[in-house]
Amino acid sequence: MPRLRLFLPLAAFILLSLLLFKGLSLDPTSLPSALVGRALPDFELAELHSSEALSRQRVVGEPMLINIWATWCYSCRVEHPFLLELAAQGVKIIGLNYKDDRDKAIGWLKDLGDPYALTLSDTEGMLGLDMGVYGAPETYVVDAEGVVQYRHVGVVDEQVWQSVLSAWFPRPQITGVLQ
Hints:
Distance between the termini: 67 Å
Shape: elongated
Number of helices: 7
Order of helices and strands: HHEEHEHEHEHEEH
Low-confidence stretches: none
CATH class: Alpha Beta
CATH superfamily: Glutaredoxin
Helix content: 25-40%
Strand content: 15-25%
Strand order of the largest sheet: 2-1-5-4-3-6-7
Number of domains: 1
CATH architecture: 3-Layer(aba) Sandwich
Structural class: alpha/beta
CATH topology: Glutaredoxin
Radius of gyration: 20 Å
Number of strands: 7
């Protein structure tokens, strides 16, 4: 029995190694979302540019992307040119400016272009919390009835659009936009 105790550290090491290997093989962009298949949460937030109060009922009605972004988010800057291309092709994108300074956000959109049909200002992060946002960027596909169909964590680019997101939009495939 005392000799068996000598192998306990080895067994613990093997078990921890297996758990670490399993964790490394997970896809970090496939974080689960409790919202998929459920209605977008009710909210009342100010529109970034006009400060007009907007609610869930005002934004639903056609398929759209809801893109969570912020000026402090480097990856948001990376995906921004592709969002501009999607918007130019007629994809409705609602921006959710997340935990950000309003003036910085307005300046950011003025400098880089504005792909959003409208932008909600979630300075306190409450809608983000209700949606289960981990950070920025995140993008949700919401159908015409306001039901969340899919959640993508990370940058939206041509590959993500072609392989996943475009399926929910009755528009031609967008190809070669970032050449």
